């Protein structure tokens, strides 16, 4: 567990998720999905039950290429992020990065602090050589954050997402460790 100071002086606690966090995570993901169109699912569309999320967390703990981090501000879950390490032999050297933050905490530097932790974990995981992610192309704030950490744009997939009838392009990015 780590504590970090945010731009506004508040203290954020970062720790790894445990299966006991599953209910809080499911609630958080369904709520945060209603705050932005930049996630791959909308409000109420997160499909895992609490039991399935607990199992997912336990499986992730067994995978050295994976980690799920929870960030709290005054006991409120502010951010969920993870590296999802692959389990197929041909992809063991890769992981996918995901990050989400409650809208009321945007602009406080949480993304930067979380990216530092995730990349630190990836670099100390010997088998990982490549981290990749996808971001909605119009989400320039996220894309600039990823570029700040050395991520390179690999390309754009047009109309990969559709939100309320509007098609959105998605930018694929990667970081060689």
TrEMBL record:
One of its GO terms (molecular function) is acyltransferase activity, transferring groups other than amino-acyl groups. Signal peptide: none annotated. Transmembrane segments: none annotated. InterPro entries: Acyl_CoA_acyltransferase (IPR016181), GNAT_dom (IPR000182). Gene3D superfamilies: 3.40.630.30. Pfam families: Acetyltransf_1. It comes from the Bacteria. Residues 12-173 form the N-acetyltransferase domain. This is GNAT family N-acetyltransferase.
